[in-house]
Every structure is written in structure tokens, then in C-alpha cells.
């Protein structure tokens, strides 16, 4: 009789699309997966092949711990816990400690959630960060403006996707804004004018298993305010190399030897690179989609594997240098709630569009679609970044989304 024990891993899932195809991510690995998932994520899980599947209405810590302990009583101990979503990285880290399984703990993960903490670490390594101040009850508009300057950016310490981010132009506006926020959960930082870049990839052994550099077309903050946004992969060359080298220094400062990352930095008008923020997970919107479709790497599969200490899914030597890819995201039509009356397919009108995801006519939007369930998503490919940028501008010019108020 063999003493071989097949490893068991607990997966925390809130995805309802290909980002939740964990069983595909584990292809070729001798293991069993048990799932705790929100109801929306159930269709992406192959329950017949799962060790077990538990559906919950919340992925809060207390719920997760109770379900995990029940699963362990039924199936035995887990060898790891993974939750890839930005919204679950803290709860997952706490659960690892509770269950005494290997992996990142809460103090480490908070370096990639709490913006003042991450900037302190990066600045301590001698890299440029925006001047910033963590707010408290004693923070006055005058003291904050003196420390950071005006204009400045007021943002939550731990949110993603520019939720709650406000650009403050003057002292009176800052006084008003400080009255309306929980100061313990917010920070202010210097406004740095320039282009926002995002660097995406996987670290293994203190180096890059894979990395790409891209430039946003408009910004996440623009998107939050109702404007289309997009991204274009930067062509191989000095600009990309410089951004990647800066990113390596930031990740070294934060101690990320093994793991996924989505790092944003500002390419200032002066040419200086300035750290903005970083998450310990793949990028959102259609960043993973174009990387899988055009460059042959599944960032979610690699994130799943590196988080659990499993071998990579792809050989980096076989991957081409990323180039000529991008995407456009059109926000939910305002004012909300709204109902889609018509929209303009572009798949056969703009040659660089190789895929599009459009809302159904009659779809009602309420403002909770994130980057996935929105007014339109377009996937782009071209010979180079200039071609992608031109195509993105054409998509934004030609796409028509008509909506009416929904009551």
C-alpha cells in the first residue's frame, strides 16, 4: 500500500469568469481542490472534479474559518490556501495562520494593501515616491497641504481601482473633503503629473518569471468618473526596460521574491519614474485576457501556482516579448441606474479589434460592474504600441452606447 498522500488546497473564489478556472490552473498537478465560493462563482467550478464545494453569501473571515474547519474535519488538513482576488488577500492570509498552513501572513500582505506602508518601504530603498501623509484626527488641511503640496490626491489607504480617489485643487476644497472621510482610513499624497504605467508579472526566486510594461490610455480615476480607459503594451526597448528595472527595485524593497504583482508607477512629465502603488495579484480589467491571448501566459494560472508553491505553468524561455496588445473599457452609462437601448459592435469595423464584449440590449446597470460587467470591452492587437493606441482612440471615437434612465 502506498504512503503517497495527494496534497489538498483550499480555494477562496469570488470570480464568475475565466479568472476562476482554478481546476484548469492546476492541470498536470497531482492535487485536490476544495472551494468556498460566492454563488456567482459557482458556474465556473467543475463540482464533479472538486474535493468539495461550499457556497456562502460572504467571504468574511469568520465565515471562511468556520467553513474551512468543517472541510478539514471532513477531508483532513489542507496544504495551502489561495484567494487571488484583491478583495480576499487579507482574509486568505488570516485563514492561513488560523489553519497553520504555509504561505503569506497578514503582516506581509498588508505591504501590498496599505498605501502608506508600501510607499514607506519603497522610499526606504531610495526610490522616488510621492510625498504623502497618513491622516489622523489631528490632521488639518493646512498641515496636510504643507507636507504634500497642492494640488494633492486624497485616497483610501487600502482600496483598489481608484475607488474613493479625489484630486484636491485648493485649501478650501481640502477642508471640505477632510470633513467627509474617515481619516484613519485615508491618506493624502502629492499629485504628480505624467503618464501612468502598469507593470504586470510573476516573480520567482527573486527574479521575473514574466514581466510586461504597459501605459494607460486615460486612467483608472478617469474611468471612475465615467470616461473610457484603456492600455497599450509598451514595445520592447529602453522605455520598457527602465520601467521594469524600477519595478524590480520596488518589489525587492517590499520583499516579494515569489508571487504575482500589478504595480503602477507614474512616468512624470520630467521623465522621472515615481512609484504609485502595487497589488499582490494579477492586474484587473482585460490585462490578463490580452496576456493569455496574445503572449501565451495565463497570469491567473501563474498566480495560483506561485501562491501555493507549485511549479510554473509556462516556460519563460518559450514566451515571446510582449508587444502590440491592448484593450479599451467603456464604463457603465450614466446617470445610474440605466438601461441599454443600443450599442455599436466594432469587431468588423476597426481591424485591430479582435474581441469585444458588449452589454445586452435591455441590460440594467447599477454601478457595481467593476471592470467586467460594463458598457463595453474591446481587445486590441497591432504591430506595435503606436498601432494599439491609434486603434484605442478609434474605438473610443466610434463606439456608441445609448442608454435610458432605469426606474
TrEMBL record:
Keywords: ATP-binding, Ligase, Nucleotide-binding, Purine biosynthesis. InterPro entries: ATP-dep_AA_Ligase, ATP-grasp, ATP-grasp_carboxylate-amine, ATP_grasp_subdomain_1. The keyword Zinc does not apply. The keyword Ligase applies. Gene3D superfamilies: 3.40.50.20, ATP-grasp fold, A domain (3.30.1490.20), ATP-grasp fold, B domain (3.30.470.20). It comes from the Bacteria. Residues 119-308 form the ATP-grasp domain. It holds the Pfam family ATP-grasp. This is ATP-grasp domain-containing protein. The lineage of its organism: Bacteria, Bacillati, Actinomycetota, Actinomycetes, Kitasatosporales.
